[in-house]
Amino acid sequence: MNKLLVLATCLTLLLAGCATSTRYVDPDNDQGAVSMALDYRDFERAASGSVGSMLESGAVNNPNGGRYVMVVSRIVNDTMQRLDTDQLVKKIRVDLLRSGKVVTTTAVGIDGAEDEMNMLARTLRDSEEFDQRGVQKKGTLQAPDLSLSGKILQRNRKVGREQQVEYYVQLSLTHLASGLALWEDETQVIKRGSNASVSW
């Protein structure tokens, strides 16, 4: 019985010694392997490219001064991956907010308010439990001027003995008063690698 216990302990220690150690990755200097799937580097590249294009176009320069209010509409995932499109959108929102040209509303959205507290806080009106001087008044929410929508597409192709995976991040910025697209852009992320690699 003791021999079995010693053997099991040695085997456990041997396997633990062979395991790859966990380490931090510096996103700004990541020289790690590139996968065929979309990763954080691709989202960063697509977001910064899109924001740069949007700012350069002048589409977010409010002729009346001040900042536009933008709402995020639907970003459709048409890839073979299970993507959280909010990862891309959040990077765009942060960069636009830092530009000083745009603020984003969380009071409205395709599937309802992004932050439900916008409306919940207003249910405190006329409640005897709350000091009414601090309760949000009617008519204080700001309606959006602009809407950001888009789609992420994936196309797989054979290139010789390799596969090529093409991703297209397509975005549109719509002026809600007129319904006109003030800006549109497409960022391409193209990867080529072994047929054994998977892109989902």
Task: Describe it.
This is Penicillin-binding protein activator LpoB. Keywords: Signal. Residues 1-21 form the signal peptide. The structure is a single chain. By secondary structure, the chain is of the alpha/beta class. The chain has helices spanning 2-18, 40-57, 86-99, 117-120; strands at 68-78, 102-104, 146-159, 162-175, 180-194. The chain has a domain at 38-113 and 142-200: Rossmann fold, CATH 3.40.50. The protein contains four helices and five strands, in the order ααβαβαβββ. The protein has a five-stranded mixed sheet with strand order 2-1-3-4-5, with helices on one face. Helix 2 (40-57) runs parallel beside helix 3. The longest helix has 18 residues, at 40-57. The model has no long low-confidence stretch (mean pLDDT 88).
Features:
LpoB, 28% strand, 200 residues, signal, 5-stranded mixed β-sheet, Penicillin-binding protein activator LpoB, Rossmann fold, alpha/beta
